[in-house]
Amino acid sequence: MTRLCSSLFVLLALVSAACGGSDSPSTPTGPTSSTPTRVMSLAGSLAFGSVDIGSAREASFTITNTGTSTLTVSGMTVTGGLVEHTRASWTNGAIAAGASQTVRITFEPVAAGTFSGTLTVNGDQTSGINTLPISGTGAGFSAAGQWSGRYVVERCDGTGSVQDLFCSANRGLYPVGTSLPIALSLQQNGSNVSGTASFGQVTGVVTGVVSSAGTLTLQGTAQSGGLRLTITNWNTPISGNSLTGLIAFNVGADSAPGVAGITARLANVTR
C-alpha cells in the first residue's frame, strides 16, 4: 500500500510539471505606454506698487514644466490697460520636462493711474496654471509723447525794423491774433524732460521738467535759416492729454538787428 501511494504522488508531480503548473501566478512582461504631459505652473509676484512716470521697476516670475515632455510657450498677454506700461524679457520658447524659465517684467508707466489685470502665459500645456495677477500705479504727470496744436499770438513787442518784420499787422510774421502751428516730441525720465519743439518750420532742442503739480517747464532755442527763436517762459499745465497756458519767446533774424518778444496762448495742443 505504501509503495502504491508513493508511485501516485510521483506521477501527479510529473503531470503537473509537464502541464506548466505552479503555485505562483505568472507576471506578464512586455513594453508599457503612457501619454506625455506638459504641466505648467507660475510662481512670483507682479505687484509693482507706485512708480513715477518715466521711471521703471522690475519684477520676475518663473514658469515651471512639471510634466514629462517639452512645454512650448507661444506668447504672453496682459489685461487691465497694462500693455503700454510693461515689457517682458522672454515671451516664447521651449521649456524641457522638469525645467524652469525665469521671466523679468518691467513696469514703466507712461501715464498716471492705477492699473490691475492678469498676465497669461500661452502654450501647449496639457494642464496646470498659466495666469498671474499683475498691478502697478503710475505716479505723477507725464509729458512724454507727440504733441501738436496751435498757438495764438497775444502780444508782440519790438522796435524799428524788428517791429516791422515780426509784429506789423500788415506784413509781420507774428502779429497779434495770428494762429500758428506748434509741435512737441518729448521723452521723460522721472521728472526730467527732453526732446524737440517745432514752431512751424523753426525746430530746435528743448529740455525741462514736470513738477509734482503737473506743470511742464521748457527751455531751448529753435532755428531755421536766419530766423532764431529762444524760449523765455514756458510753464504750461498738463491736463490729461492736453497742454494749456501761456508761452513766451524772443525771436530775431540775421537780416535785422534786435529781437522781438512774443507772448502766445496754446490752443488745442494735445497728444
Integer count of domains: 2
Return the structural class: mainly beta
* CATH-derived topology of the largest domain: Lipocalin
Work out the oligomeric state of the chains in this entry. single chain
Largest sheet entry: 9 strands, antiparallel
- CATH architectural designation of the largest domain: Beta Barrel
Structure, described:
It contains 2 helices and 19 strands. The longest helix has 17 residues, at 2-18. It folds into 2 domains: 39-139, Sandwich (Immunoglobulin-like); 145-270, Lipocalin, CATH 2.40.128. A hairpin with a 2-residue loop joins strand 13 and strand 14 (202-210). It is mainly β. The strands form 3 sheets. Strands 11, 12, 13, 14, 15, 16, 17, 18 and 19 form a 9-stranded antiparallel sheet that branches.
Summarize the structure.
The chain has helices at residues 2-18, 160-167; strands at 39-44, 46-52, 57-65, 71-78, 86-88, 93-95, 100-107, 113-123, 127-128, 131-139, 145-157, 179-189, 192-199, 202-210, 215-224, 227-239, 242-243, 246-253, 256-270. The protein has 271 residues and is mostly beta strands. It folds into two domains: 39-139, Immunoglobulin-like; 145-270, Beta Barrel (Lipocalin), CATH 2.40.128.
